[in-house]
Give the backbone structure.
Amino acid sequence: MSKNNAEKEKPGRQSGLADGDSKNTGINEIQFRNWADAIRGGSRRDLARAITLVESNRPKDVEPAQQLLELILPFSGRSDRIGISGVPGVGKSTFIEVLGKELIAAGRKVAVLTIDPSSPLSGGSILGDKTRMMEFSRMDEAFIRPSPAGHTLGGVARKTREAMLLCESAGYDVVIIETVGTGQAEWRVSRMVDLFAVLMLPNAGDALQGIKRGILEMADIILVNKADGSMKEAAEQAANEYRSVMDSAEAGVSGKTVLTCSATDLESVRSCWQHFAGELSQRKKDSRFDERRNAQLLHWIRSLAEDSMQQILQDDSASRNILNELAGQVQKKKITPLHAGLAYRRKVISELERHDKRNKIPF
Ligand SMILES: Nc1nc2c(ncn2[C@@H]2O[C@H](COP(=O)(O)OP(=O)(O)O)[C@@H](O)[C@H]2O)c(=O)[nH]1
Ligand SMILES: [Mg+2]
């Protein structure tokens, strides 16, 4: 991908930082400013390098990344953030490629960030996506970036959000986040986008058994994909079943749209986008858009703190030992569970304070 991006790099304002410079802690303030300016000026090489910096697992890269993010922050937040989810093979990449080209034709700049926690080594599926999105990825107004491999879910979520901010500051006014439907990752993505679309396969049976309450809650729009050829009728039927499941009182969800779609058909993707765009503009008018972003921001900050606390405790053997010891005492009926809980809390607080003093950031 980077080769591809580098190939289409146009002469323009660039930071002048050589490859690898961002890895050094010795970047001065002027260089940071130049870097931020270059990103804003559309240098995809500098954007890619900035994303590499925010994705870095090296503790010494954390602060430089935050320093750079602070400079671009005022220019972020202006895109439509779209989440596309669904099981592998449902047609996400196909849909995004067709939609991406269409949006670019309409004068927009499109960034696609893919998260695939099921392939921790960024293996097959990403490679498949790259070939599937070949034509789109070659366009000057497109930027595609797979998520880093081997991170915790919390880490990936933070890095994806930061990558999204960087893309926005570089002028990408649509950011699409592609993720596979694996529950937890889906939740995280649904909380960083303005519109979350879940693609479904046209198996009518799935509509009844496979649909989880979680998906209904998360999705703003359900797209039953592959509604073409011999599968068209099954897709229509599945869509109707989803609608009736949603309408039923038990589901407790409303305001969700169910559409059929054929990702291989431009007209169909176009009409799906019209729904997306209509929904977004309606929400922008009646303040739901801002309310959602605000709620997401609160959630983001809170989950950063929670993920970091969780990671510290997971990595800390002393805390684990104390927890085991307390559990033993409760089992022997020597102390009450509440007292054990409070004792553990004291240990946790002191452990977190210790980490704070060392300014250690776990992901
Ligand atoms: N018939 C049909 N095939 C599709 C459609 N969308 C995707 N496909 C095919 O389904 C396969 C998986 O698509 P892909 O976009 O890679 O799925 P992803 O894993 O969800 O990203 C590919 O062979 C696509 O050509 C569609 O709407 N109709
Ligand atoms: Mg894909």
Notes: Residues 1-7, 119-125 have pLDDT under 50 and may be disordered.
